[in-house]
Amino acid sequence: MRFRTLAELMRICRQESLTITELMIAEQAHETGESREAIVGQMAAYYQVMKTAVHKGIESDVQSRSGLVGGDARKVNEHTAASEPCVGEWAGKAMAYALAVSEVNASMGRIVATPTAGSCGIIPGVFVSAQERFGWTDEKMVNGLFCAGAIGYVIANNSFISGAEGGCQAEVGSAIGMAAGALVELRGGSPEQSVHAVGLALKNTLGLICDPVAGLVEIPCIVRNGLGAVNALAAADMALAGVRSAIPSDEVIGVMLEVGSKMPGELRETALGGLAQTPTGRKLTEKINAAKPPSL
Amino acid sequence: MRFKNVFSIIGPVMVGPSSSHTAGAVRIGRVARQLLGRTPDQAVITLYGSFAETYSGHGTDLAIVGGLLNMDTDDDRIPEAFSEAEKAGMRFELRRGTGTAPHPNFVKIEAAADGKEISVSGASIGGGNIEIHTMNDFAAGCSGYYPTLVIAHDDQVGVLASITAAASDAGLNIGFMNVDRKERQGAALTVVECDRRPDGALLDALSSLPHIHGVSVVDLTS
């Protein structure tokens, strides 16, 4: 890949008059030696998996493997359709769809890691709702996933994308930044605006800990995906309006690395702190362990 | 670069719930399966860090067993991996590792079949991506992202030259290579990441070279 930072990504796009999407597809073809058709075809198949997961989560009451959570996507979708949601109809849809995919994930259903399974709801939530809203083609959405991937590639290689390494900021935070930056490009924003959207989004999730109850990707992961999709829409709007990230986005990614590295192990996906160790968190953990005794 | 390309960020397609604890775990198990070259008769799986604390809720145990049965990350049978293991005649034991591990999500797998024993240790670094730290207690350093040759040999002058010459003759480009030895002139292991899957002719050529004792292919790309 010819870029390692978002600043380099922006510079190449400007110099060669490319969108982030076009640059990412060309770089991916070069890196893997595969044809453009093969790469875009693989991404198109991934987008279909995302859409299938959205529909499954919205149309049926998906229950998590533990039985602790499920059916929230459907509730939010019905509320959005039946009343005037506080966040507006389309943010409500994005939220419902993100919850849907995360619920399918918690049921050991089939999803695409974007960038991880813990954060797999945000990009489909934003993409599938935006496609319905603006009448975009599948082809356009598939291309947009390359833009999201380029942003995630920079975050992952300069910081982290897993909760065990860097807390929830690395998972849900990265996904929000990727979705926001890609949505800006899908709406016709410049690469520079996309990159600002990433910084704006990440700044709002810095320090977010990874504290899953009983170690399950359920509480609070699913809700954070729903709210994360709304955050991505808001960050995209700020960037499209011309708001800039006063601290450059690459420096914000550096802060994520710094904060995640200092985060104690108890708050990095071990279920030894945070919400997992609240009185209720512990009670739920005991309930699950009683149902299925751990063998270690 | 720890993350190689766009599909290490968007992807893999997988069954949930965790890309680190489920998809990455499947892939490390699958590396062990392929290094062994067949379904294990028995396996010992030792979990460390976040893997040891939260394996049950994430299905890490099911995932590693699924990988040992050569399942890919999106295999619908992963939730039933234990009964699949029973059907395949594979016994396994889960253990909690003691001491510190090099990564918060770390596992060591020891597997055996037909008198052959192997071990693999690796970290799941996020989004289903992995880093293999050791193979048969030699440093490995490979990513699982490319078809990988694993060559057991003696630490002797010219062995590496003969390996790279054979790859060159086969028109195979090498992207990464790691050599480790137990001691000078002792047992050594070379791990080679290739841009495409090595064919049977190259494997035969490598196997017939002096000082080479075993050649395995680990390929998670297909």
UniProtKB/TrEMBL annotation, chain A:
It comes from the Bacteria. NCBIfam families: sda_alpha. Keywords: 4Fe-4S, Gluconeogenesis, Iron, Iron-sulfur, Lyase, Metal-binding. Its EC number is 4.3.1.17. It holds the Pfam family SDH_alpha. GO terms for molecular function: L-serine ammonia-lyase activity. Its cofactor is [4Fe-4S] cluster. Belongs to the iron-sulfur dependent L-serine dehydratase family. It catalyses: L-serine = pyruvate + NH4(+). It comes from Cohnella soli. Residues 16-276 form the Serine dehydratase-like alpha subunit domain. This is L-serine dehydratase. InterPro entries: Fe-S_L-Ser, MmgE/PrpD_sf, Ser_deHydtase-like_asu, Ser_deHydtase_asu. Pathway: Carbohydrate biosynthesis; gluconeogenesis.
Automatic annotation (TrEMBL), chain B:
Keywords: 4Fe-4S, Gluconeogenesis, Iron, Iron-sulfur, Lyase, Metal-binding. The keyword Cell wall biogenesis/degradation does not apply. The keyword Metal-binding applies. SUPFAM superfamilies: ACT-like, Serine metabolism enzymes domain. Pfam families: ACT, SDH_beta. It catalyses: L-serine = pyruvate + NH4(+). Residues 148-220 form the ACT domain. InterPro entries: ACT-like_dom_sf (IPR045865), ACT_dom (IPR002912), ASB_dom_sf (IPR029009), Fe-S_L-Ser (IPR051318), Fe-S_L-Ser_bsu (IPR004643), Ser_deHydtase_bsu (IPR005131). GO terms for molecular function: L-serine ammonia-lyase activity. Pathway: Carbohydrate biosynthesis; gluconeogenesis. Belongs to the iron-sulfur dependent L-serine dehydratase family. PANTHER family: L-SERINE DEHYDRATASE, L-SERINE DEHYDRATASE, BETA CHAIN-RELATED. This is L-serine deaminase. It comes from Cohnella soli.
